[in-house]
Specification:
Rossmann fold; two-stranded parallel sheet; alpha/beta
């Protein structure tokens, strides 16, 4: 499968490594140009390209950039095939990124992304911490395997995205249509809590749209105080324990 990845931060980097190691034809790009992409991202065979080239002639486009950078992605996506599966992995953190009025008013993150791009979008890999994603993948059938919810309006897109999630070492859970993907956004019980196959359904069902933004901000404040840095990526065990205490 041909996969283009826009963004090589912590999640994009791991996706590039996992999919290229699995035999997929992977192209990656960032906003600074191919020469700036670290060799670690490319170690399993992914190719560094420009953003336009990364989305050209691919089966899947994975967008892994801060949501305030989505307007920069819009013109790039004109190069992508109209039938390419588009997957959004991003999350909204207004205290870290520029505020987006529609999201401040409660619009669902990936619904907003789909509207900006003018094409269907699936939501996946946003609900797992970067370090957990890098090290905690396990084979199917492993007890207490971590689950990742997947949302998309088209059932075929949802199933295709779920298959890719399984390839990365996590149980894919059908989370329904994109409008319901707020249940896997920051501040909800599914978000960065390493929920297992047995926990994910309940975690999604008990998400509280009114309370999740406050819980999101509380979590950020806890980690900022602990590490004296709002941009820090916490250790895996610390992140899951703190988020479980706040979100679940």
């Amino acid at each position: 499968m041909k996969i283009g990845i826009l963004g090589v931060g912590n999640i994009g980097k791991t996706l590039a490594q996992k999919f290229s190691a699995g035999g997929h034809d992977v192209k990656v790009a960032n906003s600074r140009g191919p020469e700036s992409i670290d060799a670690e991202v490319l170690k399993n065979g992914a190719a560094a390209t420009t953003a336009s080239e990364a989305v050209r002639d691919v089966d899947v486009v994975i967008i892994s950039v801060p949501l305030n950078r989505i307007p920069d992605v819009v013109p790039v996506m004109s190069e992508a095939p109209r039938d390419a599966l588009v997957i959004d992995t991003s999350n909204y953190y207004p205290m870290r990124d520029n505020k987006i009025e529609a999201l401040e008013q409660g619009q669902v993150e990936s619904v907003w992304v789909a509207e900006q791009l003018g094409r269907p979008v699936a939501k996946a890999w946003n609900s797992i911490g970067a370090k957990s994603f890098a090290i905690n993948g396990t084979p199917a059938g492993t007890p207490n395997r971590i689950a990742i919810p997947v949302a998309a309006d088209d059932p075929k897109d949802r199933q295709a995205t779920m298959a890719l999630v399984e390839e990365t070492g996590f149980t894919a859970y059908d989370a329904g249509v994109l409008a319901e993907s707020w249940r896997q956004q920051p501040g909800t019980p599914c978000y960065c809590t390493d929920v297992t196959e047995d926990e994910v359904e309940h975690a999604l069902a008990t998400a509280d749209a009114a309370r999740s933004p406050k819980r999101r901000e509380l979590s950020v404040a806890v980690f900022a105080e602990r590490y004296n840095d709002i941009m820090v990526t916490p250790e895996v065990d610390v992140a899951a324990r703190v988020n479980r205490a706040i979100f679940m």
